[in-house]
Write a structure and sequence with these properties.
By secondary structure, the chain is α+β, with helices and mostly antiparallel strands. It folds into two domains: about 5-110, Beta-Lactamase, CATH 3.30.450.20; about 115-345, Heat Shock Protein 90 (2-Layer Sandwich). Helix content is about 40%, strand content about 30%. The chain is elongated and about 90 Å long.
Length: about 350
């Protein structure tokens, strides 16, 4: 490649790849090295498909550019790098002739930050819709919930002590849901926030879902023992995470792998506010993935990908997490879905 072409490509801010007709790399600029975390030596002569684990764009379209002499663009595509990072990109592919050689000019621009701002604005709109619907739903839940709790209490009294475990659990969950409903209907205050170990909340969720867990689904714990206690309403956070876990289990059907992970992050921005410390709770499943047409409206009330779903679980989860100044993010592709609940570490109870 001539010095002038190389100088131009190397100084472009976007990641640039030049591919030959076999879709092998003929040249890349420093920005591509930085994005893909691969050296120029490693990429030289390598096929396009070896540069990443997954690209949501159809790579067959690259070859078609040579045949049609027409380029294409794909905005907000998902790129999974070889080191496991997931980045959102704008992709542009154009035919180009360099020194009498027909090549493809592939321009990749990372747009995660812009997308995050857009998503947070969209989530705010979704939250307002969810609040109104959830309050209406809470009114409808109160009366049958009281009847359920009363029936369980009567049954509990008639059973001997060795058989009271499940009726006790029903009463505890009915009380928890009743308290949750009261707080959903009332003002958003932090009066119920106390210091809690989030792993105890997660263990309670695992205990609840294990009662009817399909035999083919395995739950793996991956906890960070260094996570400090944080000031939360444990019942609200339990409900939010339970909704996400139940969705994951239902998505996997009769078999799959569910990972519940906890991590500490530092200097993180949540909903536009910088926090010195935050915890991330990741719920990862290997189910079929969330259909792409649902991604932009996933947290809207009444949006569901299941025939028997209510479309309220994630909407309620989002409302409860945002009441803790937190955020829910997700990424999904076939065989992999990850929900991340970020909560700032606020130690004052």
């Amino acid at each position: 490649m001539s010095t002038i072409y190389k100088s131009i490509f190397d100084n472009v801010v976007s990641s640039i790849l030049l591919l030959d007709q076999q879709l092998c790399v003929r040249h890349n600029n420093p920005a591509a090295e930085q994005l893909l975390k691969l050296s120029t030596k490693r990429m030289a002569g390598s096929h396009l498909n070896t540069l990443f684990h997954h690209l949501s764009s159809n790579t067959q379209l690259f070859s078609q550019v040579f045949e049609t002499d027409q380029g294409f663009t794909d905005n907000l595509a998902t790129l999974i790098c070889v080191d496991g990072r997931s980045v959102t990109i704008d992709l542009s592919v154009s035919p180009i002739e360099v020194e009498q050689q027909h090549l493809l000019l592939v321009e990749i621009r990372q747009v995660d930050q812009q997308q995050r701002i857009s998503e947070e604005m969209q989530q705010f709109t979704q939250q307002q819709l969810a609040k109104n619907l959830v309050k209406g739903l809470a009114h409808e839940i109160k009366n049958p919930l009281g009847g359920l709790r009363g029936a369980a209490q009567l049954l509990h009294r008639q059973l001997d002590e060795s058989n009271q475990e499940y009726t006790q659990m029903i009463m505890e969950q009915a009380d928890r849901l009743n308290n949750l409903v009261e707080r959903l209907l009332g003002p958003n205050t932090h009066h119920q926030h106390k210091l809690h170990n989030v792993h105890q909340v997660l263990e309670k969720i695992i205990q609840l879902v294990s009662i009817e867990l399909p035999h083919g689904i395995h739950i793996e714990r991956d906890y960070d023992p260094s996570i400090p206690d944080i000031s939360i309403d444990d019942e609200q956070i339990q409900q939010a995470l339970l909704n996400i876990v139940q969705n994951a289990i239902q998505a996997m059907g009769d078999g799959g792998h569910l990972t519940i992970m906890s991590r500490v992050t530092s200097q993180v921005t949540i909903n536009g506010k910088r926090h010195r410390l935050a915890i991330e709770i990741k719920i990862i499943d290997n189910g079929p993935g969330i259909p792409p047409h649902l991604h932009n409206t996933l947290f809207y009330p009444m949006i569901t990908g299941r025939a028997q779903g209510t479309g309220l679980g994630l909407s309620i989860a989002q409302t409860l997490v945002q009441q803790h100044s937190g955020r829910i993010d997700f990424k999904s592709r076939p065989g992999f879905t990850e929900f991340t609940v970020s909560l700032p570490v606020i130690k004052e109870a």
